[in-house]
Amino acid sequence: GIGIREVLLTSGCPGTEAKCIVRVEECRGPVDCGWGIPISEGLACVKMPCIYIPPENRFKYVWKMLIPNKTAHILPNDSAIMEVCRDTHSITFQCETQENGNIIASVKYTVYATTETETKKSRIETGQSRRITTDAILVFVLLTGVIVTVGVIFAMILMILHWAVVKSIWESKSGQDNQDKKLANKSSLRNME
Questions:
Q1: How many CA within 13 A on the CB side of residue 75?
Q2: In Å, what is the CA distance from 93 to each residue of 68, 121, 168?
Q3: Cα separations in angstroms, 37 against 41, 61, 65, 108, 111
Q4: Is a pLDDT exceeding 80 seen at residue 62?
Q5: Predicted pLDDT of residue 171
Q6: Predicted confidence (pLDDT) per residue in 64-74, tens digit
Q7: pLDDT score for 149
Q8: Ramachandran sector of residue 139 (left: φ over 0; alpha: ψ -120 to 50; beta: rest)
Q9: 156, 157, 163, 165: CA torsion to nearest 10
Q10: Which residues lie closer than 8 Å to 103 by C-beta, 6 or more apart?
């Protein structure tokens, strides 16, 4: 196929550079570039590009509709980009990029039927709504955990800073409990007498 490549030099570069670009040139590789991705894809129509490098008018483009078990139907479109509206069934298209009568690149696209696109869209939307619900729950749990943790840490810091106050409260409560016990013991002894 067609493309651009950089020719690098790994020794003899100026200065301390380990690699340097000598030139940029067009390269050719396997003709079949496989399956392409449309430029834009809506519910009604799809825009598909052929493989090319600028200037686009330097090449000839041959668009074909591929029909299973039949010869391909050549379309009258000879531009680098073709827009196709969806039909009731899926159709596969192929674009051949030619230069001087030779095929130098080829790419295929499948344009799905309107019903298939709507089915895929509803599956995607269902998956996204589930993901949003799950994400909301995870965020809620995470925030709750953070708030509780910060509260516990804050309480511990206050206890450490005001340790003398906490200690005196505990001591006064334990001292009051001891006095209450002594009074209860004295009253029980009196009742026994």
A1: 20
A2: 12, 22, 86
A3: 9, 17, 17, 9, 11
A4: yes
A5: 80
A6: 998 888 888 89
A7: 94
A8: alpha
A9: -90
A10: 31, 96, 97
Mean pLDDT, residues 166-175 taken together: 77
pTM of the full predicted structure?
0.47
**How many other C-beta atoms are found inside a 10 Å radius of the C-beta of residue 45?**
13
Residue (of 124, 51, 141, 38) closest to 85 by Cα position: 38
The amino acid sitting at 179 is: Q
Q: Which amino acid is at 52?
A: Y
pLDDT in tens, 102-137: 888 888 888 887 765 555 555 555 556 667 777 788
Compute the distance between CA of residue 121 and CA of residue 113 in angstroms, rounded to an integer. Answer: 12
* Residues 6+ positions from 24 with CB-CB distance below 8 Å: 4, 5, 6, 7
